[in-house]
Fold each of these.
Amino acid sequence: MWKTVARKEVLANLLGSRFYVVVLLAAALVATSFFVMGRDYKARLADHDLIKAKPGEPVAVNPPNPLSIVAKGLDEAMSRSFEVTPIGVTVRAGQKSGNTVFAFFPAPDFLYVVRVVMSLLALLFGFDLVNREKEDGTLRLVLANPVPRGAVLFGKWAGSFASLAVPFLLVTGIGLAALALDPAIRFTGGQATRLGLILGLSLLYIAFFLSLGTLVSALTRRASSALVILLFAWVLVVFVLPNLGTLVARQAVKVPSVRALSEKRQQIWTREVLLRIRGQGDWPSHVKAISAENDALEADYRVKFERLVALSKAINRVSPAAGFVYAVTEIAGTGIGEESAFKREVVRYKNGLLDRTLAAPDGGVADYPAFRYAYRPLGRVLAAGALFDAGWLAAGAVLLFALGYVAFIRYDVR
């Protein structure tokens, strides 16, 4: 029975202008996003060819991630060039975005399009799912037949979801196929799997907001009232709540500033140099002391920073938009967890080079090993929190629909 209702809903959408507006808007935004972010990736890839380490150079630099086209995240921070020095690791340069607009506005990646635009479109499909037919008088006629209300509601939800999901997947698939034809952009098999997971999460995210629209539609008697309520909820969920946790966490967890860390490193360096001038100890022992204290400073900073991030995430996950961003960026390899793992690998690389240098008879190493960073396996990424975020989206969508069902059972169609 619900399939008949779903087909009716799809046909009604096909006959209305709203469906074609959604298709054209999604096509334009997704195509623009892939074009702009593809050019940005290729520009950063060209920068990488200029700043990458030469043979034997003690520099750690990571090439840009192709999945940053979909979710840019912290890829620019991970693409910087890190130079090993006696006082630690210093940032030398980075593969900066060629588009200066990104310095003032969020990167228009696929993640942004889904997080902001597709969530709004899902609400526009769901805000009048029930109350519009009540206003038109057709809902009373439908329920006058021996058809369960649950089948009617689920059929209307499924038809609306199909009207959103099918063109969205079609447009995204065409865009990804066009990217794959570019010889400068190469997705590995593992990255293709991650792209599939990101698309699945995007559908869950759309389903969440469609269920939210269905719930509010079943709780209100007028479509205009539902639209106002949902627009307020959309602003709150997508923009306000994801930033609230960060503000609260910064008040609860104090993290030293980059300037304070830099000044402390300089003090350590000055102290050890003065001790060496006074003849206390040999130079290798002072270098080891500088490196050890700088590593301790970095470790203390990372512990406090990760505590700040954990608290911020815990609060921000109240918003499904924040959970969606966390899951997608981690799966893409551009999230906070991946950036932390990358920084730890850079420190290990620095310590290895320093040990080789100090162990060499002439005080130097002719040929340093090249830096290589392997992204965390997908299973580890999912276990670290991405699976929880996906589950939260799925559970939220089901719960909202269930609440909408309860409201629809009691809905007065008169």
Amino acid sequence: MSMTIDSKNDFFSDAFRIPENFDPKKIPTRDWIIDGFLLRNYLSIILGAGGVGKSTYALSVAVALAAGTPLLELSVNKKHNVLVINNEDDKTELERRVASICIHYDINHDNIRGNIELLSGYKNEFKMAKSDCNNKTKISEHARSLIEKIKRDKIDVVVIDPFISTHECNENDNTTMNEVASIYKKVCSEANVSILLIHHVRKDNSSQRSSIIRVEDARGAKSVTDAARIVWGMSKILPKEAEGLKNPPEDVSNLVRLIPDLKTNYSPQNNIDHSILRLVSVSLENSQEKPDFLGVPELHRKIKGYKISEKFTPAKLVAALEKINSKTSLEPSCRFRDILSDLEHITNLGKTTISDTVALLPRDRSNALIIETNERHTAAAYYATKQHPDKSRSPWLIHREILKSSQTNQLTS
């Protein structure tokens, strides 16, 4: 399958050289609409299983942008124009969803009316890409119209939900999906807009042992997530995981994990923690007898370390590190990846399970020696040098931190 591309007389006419008197300080900064999440001119993705709350969260982001309000602790400080394209809900259901968000967060509808526009593709689906009779992937007329609308109405962000419904191509073919993703990037580039795409994980990804998801769990070919610069994840927190939370609510069925660092190309060092969202039931009060209730996400708390696997808890990590240290003293310069094989051998667990446990440990920089992280995980394990009532040993203090080398030197000196 091949894609039809508009030809140019000279493809390399836009090639450039670094100019004379080049001054890096004059290069424009990246145009973040939401720090670490939505970047103008690029594609972002929310990834998760069906029914986890991706659509509701995306609509909450849209309302926050339209109102210029930092809902859910998002870095929104001014109003933006937003277009929401939803192929799953009809017009009335979209109205219900937006109304429930406004009711819960006490946002006047008139405050967002001029900045948010919604399009339902429930009856007539929006298509970004088409496949012709020769199985060639082509940009659709919908996509061309979208570019014109974005430019005309000065739209900053487009939310498209879900990705699978916006094309007619083989989702498991990497070449084909790369062509579809190229159309998304074309819209972002030509219209100077940020697109937030809602994407699903594979159905066979659900597990009763851990709710951690990864970019590799995305449905279909990986070309889609490869094309995105930022990928955030959402997943239901399992009851066994919730046991590790401090003062968990009685009903944990509505707790959702927000993972803001599945993929963070171009992302600034904003030290975003994984968060726990709670889907709160909100009444529209549109009937005295049987009003509609809808779930609205609110920030429950930042994750401060809880067990994500029965097999490998923070306590077991401590025991494993003690064994390693008894054989070879851990130095401050020791990197986490350097001891990963030892941890595998001691625990009989895989690298992924071990790394995920470390990645969700709480932060604490006081009086600690560092085992540095690898490039993939924003996590590090520490052991404490603080005095302990039992003088014969030093207690382990396990937590995590994103640190630069200069901070490392200060901490261990």
Amino acid sequence: MTPLSNLQSPISVFMSSLASFTHLRVHSHFSLLGATTSIPSLVERARHDGLTHFALTDRNVLYGAVAHARACQAAGLQPITGMTVTVAGIDGVVDQPAELVLLARDQCGYRSLCRISSAIQRSPQREQTAQRGVAWEVVKENRDGLICLAGGRGGWVEQAVRSGDDALTLRLVSKLAGSFDDACFLALELHSAADEAVARTITALADRFGVRTVALQPVYCLLPSEQPRLRLLSAIARNCTLSEVAADDLPGGDDPAVMLHWLSPAQVAERFVAFPAALAAVSEIVQQCQPALPDGRPIWPALDLPTGESADSELARQAQHGLTERDITDAAAPVRLRHELDAIASHGFAPFFLLVADVVRFARSQSIPVSTRGSVANSLVAYCLGITTVDPIANDLIFERFLNPARTSLPDIDL
């Protein structure tokens, strides 16, 4: 038998969920004309409420991702990068657009979000694409590293449940669960007592398909008094009067029962007291989501390197070959070449040199005039690779003017 001391009571599970709670669907004013609150205000409220993590899920864009990450780090919170995506429909299942909340587990997930957002933002009909949604295939092809929260008033599943279309509901849950596997969660929103029946139906569906539910409170503003401003923002976005704003153009469908402001962890816990598993799932999701933004290191294009070679070893091989080809006989040349290669490797810049050398070789092979300017002429490695045409040893040029141990930023090689 399991010792009683090792058993967690429902109360302890509930309190643990409350301690690790965070909002997983939050919109800032980077959801242009779609939400009222700035990122600093949201982060300050999260810190005030004792949250340890904070997610940002603006609609179809990642404009606020960097500001969000920096604000969280300054406040001692871990950022969770996400996006609320409008999806056009699922072929053979549903034609109507709906929303999915996608959270990045890691940098792979962040890249997936970038590709999905770019599919919308680069469209010649960007506004129309944002309204009708990105193709489901785009989401499916770029699901690596993502957690999908499907449901809520703006999601297919809840809409199908509310319409009483049981067959469609089953197809939707099957499709979503099959596409995202264990990264799929069915979101529950509770705004009124009537929502509990819908939530219980969705919970039963989740149990049937082996997926989990998660508590979700959409946040579009900080205070209840700010919610009417959402109608004003929508009117500005559509260049119409307040009375002409359609219900479908407002979060929550303009239902007065739907609350879109920030709730404290205690308030959310009170709402979801009948759904402890959905509240506990928030903690599980939070633990899966690691910092997702690039850490500042350069992201290089894929290099076609010989089998078994690294960028550093290939750079050393090409540089040594160039030293021989250039017929540099100065006794100091091998020592200096080794010194430069070590400096380049310590900064992680070997791919940069290989890429530029490849560009220069191609230009010359196509009879395209190419040369360099600036301090790159001080590099023996660049000379041996054929990037520059000036011998830095013969001209007594100092490598450290181009790259020195104190420099952390990528140097310029101007062509």
Amino acid sequence: MGLYYKFSFSIFISFFFLSCNHDQKSTEKKLINPKKKYSIQVGNARYEGPEKYMYYHAAIKHGDTDLDKPSRFNSYKPGYKQIELEKALKKNNDIKYSRSTNSFNQLYATYAKDNALFIERGPYNAPGRTRAFLVDASDLTKKTWLAGSVGGGVWKTSDGGKNWVNISSDMDNIAVTWLGQSPSNPDVIYAGTGENWIGTIGDITGAGIFKSTNGGENWSNVSLRDIDGYVDSRFSNISRLLVDPNNSNIVIISTVGGGGSFIFKTLDGGTSWSKVHQSSSRIQQIISAPSDFNIQYAAVRGQGVLKSLDAGTSWYNPGGIGIGGTVSLDDPDGIFSSGGGTFGRLELAVSYQNSNTVYAGIDGDVDSYLRVSYDGGTTWNLLKNEDNSADDWLVPQGWFDNTITVNPFNDSIVYYGGR
């Protein structure tokens, strides 16, 4: 019997070492020959890493592997969710479709909202991007903030960011890109939706302008409508919005959609809108001078800067950057000091003291450019570091990541960022 146990134990030990050796060799083999990961190449576009998922998602919606080809599908109209919701609610009032516990109406006797239990499962460590941020003017302690996520709606904190609650359950589209409020009537808040004014495959199309008259507790869509009651396609994506600090009914917005890019203005809080400017290139920003709301500037992708002297009612080319102005792009007073070239997205920042002092962060095709105008956009001066070097802060993603602002107390200090 003892001999049998010794023999069995010897076989076990041998098998154990052989197995370990085999596993070790398998592991080494895997390390030596890792599985190759392939990128997706479509025309001149290459998708790798997380971008592959974005491409798959876009291709499915587009109906073709080549996103540059016309889509096989008609896109949903902006605001269609609200229309369908209203239809469903109207149908729900019909006794045939009502939520009933009547035993004689077993077909409609249960309803998920009344019976289902949902548990938040995360992830908790992957917040979405936040484009819009507003410090509530009604709170003198400055601890009440509103944040707009491009895929998560509007969130509010009353304790300086320690705790947040979502306040956008009334919105049928939560791709929030901008928030606006007038200190003269802080209960009125506007939210713009739709990020497709940037131009990437991961952008979420919006549903126009939403308005709250009770500090964000409830929202209603105040966008321009088409003849079928849907949100006008020109309101699909709101790049920026401005609210008159002295009149909460006056709002100016820049939009992309409906075959072009536009600037609209309302004088009655969104009841009616007037188109005040149209462009074939994307108007990606409008900004007002902090010292004078009548002075406004607009950044037009790849073309230059527009200006308004009447609170956004009319727009003209001040002459300094592109748009057929008197100063060429490669002039020392234009964007490029030498060599010519083209540019894409540009972001503007206006001085708090002087409405004629404007900074521009410009994503050029070969470099990044920081420019300043001291005459309201007529001429522009190139800024460099003290050692005469330049910061190429907008490569490789200045078309997406581009921000700039001026110190409110010192015009000589400007903050800019990108990737």
